[in-house]
Amino acid sequence: EKSLIDCSKVYVKNDDHGGAGAFAAVPIKAGEVVERGIARRLPLDGNDCVYVFTWSEDRKVWAMASGCAVFYNTDLHGNENVKMNRYFD
User: Fold this and answer.
1) What pTM does this model have?
2) In this model, does residue 89 exceed pLDDT 80?
3) What are phi and psi for residue 74, nearest 5 degrees?
């Protein structure tokens, strides 16, 4: 049976900013799936916890993600280089 989690194309290491970040372990082309994982819904308010993701269309359900997802860099100016697709079912 296929694993529910596969993050073999990335790894996490210390970054230049004093934290940890996800880095490519192999060349990854635009549009290619970087990693596949699962999420667990959590009974908390994500506004009080920066380590969770919104997990519903109305943004009232929160979840933690498996794999390296929490270590992907984001950008407030639209320069991010990864997109997360969420399947809420």
Assistant:
1) 0.76
2) no
3) -120, 170
